[in-house]
TrEMBL record, chains A, B:
<feature type="binding site">
    <location>
        <position position="107"/>
    </location>
    <ligand>
        <name>NADPH</name>
    </ligand>
</feature>
<comment type="similarity">
    <text>Belongs to the homoserine dehydrogenase family.</text>
</comment>
<protein>
    <recommendedName>
        <fullName>Homoserine dehydrogenase</fullName>
        <ecNumber>1.1.1.3</ecNumber>
    </recommendedName>
</protein>
<feature type="domain" description="Homoserine dehydrogenase catalytic">
    <location>
        <begin position="139"/>
        <end position="312"/>
    </location>
</feature>
<keyword id="KW-0791">Threonine biosynthesis</keyword>
<feature type="domain" description="Aspartate/homoserine dehydrogenase NAD-binding">
    <location>
        <begin position="7"/>
        <end position="131"/>
    </location>
</feature>
<dbReference type="InterPro" id="IPR005106">
    <property type="entry name" value="Asp/hSer_DH_NAD-bd"/>
</dbReference>
<feature type="binding site">
    <location>
        <begin position="7"/>
        <end position="12"/>
    </location>
    <ligand>
        <name>NADP(+)</name>
    </ligand>
</feature>
<dbReference type="Pfam" id="PF03447">
    <property type="entry name" value="NAD_binding_3"/>
</dbReference>
<keyword id="KW-0560">Oxidoreductase</keyword>
<feature type="active site" description="Proton donor">
    <location>
        <position position="206"/>
    </location>
</feature>
<dbReference type="GO" id="GO:0004412">
    <property type="term" value="F:homoserine dehydrogenase activity"/>
</dbReference>
<comment type="pathway">
    <text>Amino-acid biosynthesis; L-threonine biosynthesis; L-threonine from L-aspartate: step 3/5.</text>
</comment>
<dbReference type="Pfam" id="PF00742">
    <property type="entry name" value="Homoserine_dh"/>
</dbReference>
<comment type="pathway">
    <text>Amino-acid biosynthesis; L-methionine biosynthesis via de novo pathway; L-homoserine from L-aspartate: step 3/3.</text>
</comment>
<dbReference type="GO" id="GO:0009086">
    <property type="term" value="P:methionine biosynthetic process"/>
</dbReference>
<keyword id="KW-0486">Methionine biosynthesis</keyword>
Length: 318, 318
């Protein structure tokens, strides 16, 4: 397939770099400032080097022209935005209008405007896939799709690696939140402004997307429907107390009974949910097959790219 | 899709019972002794009741006619056989000759005659899928398929629930093998003749199938290529000794570096591989996304049926 990659940060760059290994050709790449377009295939390494040289000067083309180029799949990897989910939603809209496929890592459109996305997809010859929006490399959405969303009665898990790293480190090292946050920032596991992760918003968006997928159009959810509590107020003493009782604390997101909740929760210390470091886990409760546990790396350039390329592989030819 | 279900034991019956929920019609059912065929759709409950009434008298039709009936997908759920993998292989061969799809739970053809199956599939308009042959309800093969077999560098796991139940119970209760085997047989977790499970053969067949999938035709494996050791000689003292060191013992199957090994192995007692009871787990090591852990119910009628119906859902129309 020919890929137009819009958003050339960590994830978009990784997709561009791995595309050839999967037999695909990158025919357009665009960031906010510039684009490079070549129907015969872009020299990805050269383009990324130009971008790296401080000016984000990916190429000589206009970013808007990238959406009009020759491609089969729009790879939408621009940063998540809430509310109107722009410009990501607009990118998706244009590609579908042109009857192209869309594969997203950007959670915005799928969490905040799910119904509209599905309507646009219905009217298009192109399809929309978004495995990378939930759980990074973990095959959550394809598993739900294959087993049938109607057979999944609940989904829960650890969906944010930053928050989980902090909590599991607080627990294992007996250190306080601020100290461990600083460690996480030094390691590049937490952002300079970590609020999106530690307040639970990132995990909540993923749960909203899960809820939308499981509802199959019967009901539409947005971030406003989630009850969200973050990890900033957990004292180290709470973790010690939990441990005395054979438990620990993790930031758990759950979709069940039409409700979406994200918050710190006590879990048995060796439970599947007590993953450590930046590992993510999703537990699916199924009607006929009990519980499925899927865990792995929930974030990272190559990791997320893997999920996007798996999605590309499941698209039918146009 | 219209399903012809050959083999109406635990798994085949479950597929028949659940087919309607997934929008499919059962147009043929056959066991060794009899068959029932109806292009308009079989009354599954009535057929299973007749079978249940001690004479396995599923219907008035000849089992061989089931393969010639009107159906899109042959659901092959007859008991596993080694070597020539008959009659399962013959059922698959006939369906593919007639340009129908085949979905298997029967490990025999995929472990012992993988290359021949792939050749037949290539010459047929029908496709062959076999998720249910490895890890029951756990989406192992579809995950490998979506992520690309060439990107999976190793696969390992606990692939037999009977052996795992016995070992985890020996460890947790401090009981010996014979005692726990008897418990397992009372619970229906182990067969009267448990050798297929406790000698590691079942786990080995699953690993052989994994090895065939990962090799993508570069090399073909059969059960003879697996180095297999079972659990019958593990004294309870070995588990105590392991526990003093923070470890336990599990029957682990691994496919890596072109080799297939099944045998008891020491694992850290809270490692992901230290699943308890009849739970199965498969760990995939990937090139770009680190380790994926997939765990859940590895056996059971409805569980395995779920995997077969997920396979049916991924088949293209004929």
């Amino acid at each position: 397939m020919r890929l137009a990659i819009v958003g050339t940060g960590t994830v978009g760059s990784s997709v561009a770099q791995l595309a050839g290994d999967y037999g695909h050709t990158v025919t357009a790449m665009a960031n906010v400032e510039a684009a490079t377009i070549d129907s015969g295939g872009i020299d990805v390494e050269a383009a990324l080097e130009r971008q790296h040289e401080g000016e984000r000067h990916l190429g000589e083309d206009d970013p808007e022209d990238a959406l009009e180029a020759d491609y089969d799949v729009l790879v939408e990897a621009t940063p998540v935005t809430l509310g109107d989910a722009q410009p990501g939603f607009g990118h998706l809209e244009r590609a579908l209008q042109l009857d192209r496929h869309v594969v997203l890592a950007n959670k915005g459109p799928m969490a905040e405007r799910y119904g509209e996305v599905m309507d646009l997809a219905e009217q298009s010859a192109g399809e929309v896939r978004f495995e990378a929006t939930v759980g990074g490399a973990i095959p959550v959405l394809s598993t739900i799709e294959d087993y049938g969303p109607e057979t999944i009665t609940a989904a829960r898990g650890v969906l944010n690696g930053t928050a989980n790293f902090i909590l599991s480190r607080m627990a294992s090292a007996g250190l306080g939140y601020e100290h461990v946050l600083a460690e996480a920032q030094d390691l590049g596991v937490a952002e300079t402004d970590p609020s999106f992760d530690v307040e639970g918003t990132d995990a909540a968006l993923k749960c909203v997307i899960l809820a939308n997928v499981l509802a199959e159009g019967d009901r539409e959810y947005t971030l406003e429907d989630a009850a969200v509590e973050g990890i900033k107020d957990i004292p180290e003493s709470a973790l010690e107390l939990a441990q005395e009782d054979g438990r620990t604390i993790r930031l758990i997101g759950e979709v069940a009974g039409g409700e979406i909740r994200v918050g710190p929760r006590l879990v048995p210390e060796h439970s599947e949910l007590a993953v450590t470091g930046t590992t993510n886990i999703v537990q699916l409760e199924t009607e006929n097959a009990g519980r499925l546990n899927l865990s792995g790396r929930g974030a990272g350039g190559p990791e997320t790219a893997t999920a996007m390329l798996a999605d590309v592989g499941r698209l039918p030819p146009l």
